[in-house]
Design a protein that fits this description.
The protein has 414 residues and is of the alpha+beta class. The chain contains five helices and 22 strands. The radius of gyration is 50 Å and the shape is elongated.
Length: 414
Amino acid sequence: MSQDQVELQDKSKSPEEPGATGKGPGALLRWFLILFFVFLVLGIYAVSQRMSEHKALAQQTEQMAVPFVSVIRATAVNTDSEMVLPGTLKPDVESPIYARTNGYLKKWYKDIGSHVEKGEILAEIDTPEIDQQLAQARADLVTQQANLSLSTLTATRYQDLIKSDSVSRQDLDNANGDLAARRAMVQSADANVKRLEEMESFKRVYAPFKGIITQRNVDPGTLINAGNGGTATKEMFDLAQIDPMRVYVAVPQSDSTSIHVGLKACLSLTEQAARSFCGQVVRTANSIDPTTGTLLTEVDVPNGSGTLLPGSYAEVHFDVKFTGKRLSLPINALLFRPDGTMAAVVGPDNRINLKKITVGRDFGNTLEVLQGIDSADRVVINPPDALDQGELVNLAGQEAPGPANSNASPTVKP
C-alpha cells in the first residue's frame, strides 16, 4: 500500500467526522426510541397488573357479597303421638266482692285461703252516717204518720158536717186533698226508711256462693266507698269456686276438627308428675280466633280435693291421635313475613326459594309443619331477615343435622 492511501485512511478515521464518534442525530434518536419502548413496556406491565388486581378484587368482592348459609332437612314427626296442648286453669265461678255502703271497715272475718259457705259473713263495716240517716228517716216517718192520722180525722169530720151544711164543699175538698197528700208523704217516708235499712244491711258483707277467698284487699279502718273496697280499682275480696275447675285450651285450627263435646281430656302438672286429673270437653267457642288461628276449648275437671289451683299451667292430653305425614323444623329455621310463616329453601342452583308453610303443634324447640315443604328440601337455618326470593347463596360446610324426632308429648304455646 502506498503512503498516500495510508494517509487517506487515517483521515477517514479522523475524530472530526460526526459519524466516527457516535454522537450524531441518528444516535440520539436511537437512544430515545429505546427509552420510549422501555417505558412503554413498563407502563403496559403496570396497567396490566393494576387491571388484574382490580379484576381479582372485584371477583373477591362479588364472592364475599354472596352470603353463606347452613341448611338442614325437615324431620318426620311420629304420627301416632297424642294431642297435648297447654291449658290455663280457672275457677268454675269467680267474683270480686265490693261494698254496697259507705263507712269504715270494722272487722274482717275471712282471710285468703278460707273456705266459706254461701251466706257466711266475710266482713263488717261501721256506717255511722247511714245509721243517723236511718234514724232521721224513721223519725220523719213517725211525723208523717201523725200528720196522716190528723188529716184522716179531719176529713172524716168534714164528711159528717157536710150533711148538715156546717162546712162548705170547698172545705171538704181541701180536707180530702190534704188526706191524700199525707198518705203519699207517709208512703215516701216509709220507702226512704226501707232504702236506708237496705243500705244499713250492707254493712255486713256475705259470701254469695260457696268457695275460697283468693284475695283480701282491706284492713280494719279502711275507708269503704260503695262500689269498691276503699280504692278506685280494688275490691274487698275475691271469691272463687274451684270445684269443678275450668281449663281453657287454644286448639290450632288444623286440629279443631278433632275436638268435640264429651271428648276425654287429662291434665298433667309438673309439680304433680305422678298424678293425672281427667275430665272432658264441655264446650268450645265454635269460632276460630282470627288473631291466633285457634279454637278456644273448655275442659271441666273435678276438683273436690282442691288439689288443682286457679291460675296454674297444665298440659292437657286429649284422647285423639294424629294421622298423616307431618314434618318438624327448629324454630330458628322460620321466617315471619307479612304474607305468613316462611321457610327459606335452597334450590339446585343455590338460589333461595321462600316457601309459605302451615305450622301445627309446638314441640318446644321445634314446630310441626303441616304443609309447604317436604323432607328433601334444604332449609336454611338461622336465615337473615334480609333474605329475598331468588337470592344466590353459598352453602357453609356440611349440611347440618335436622331436629331430632322426639317421641315426647308435644305442646302448643298459648
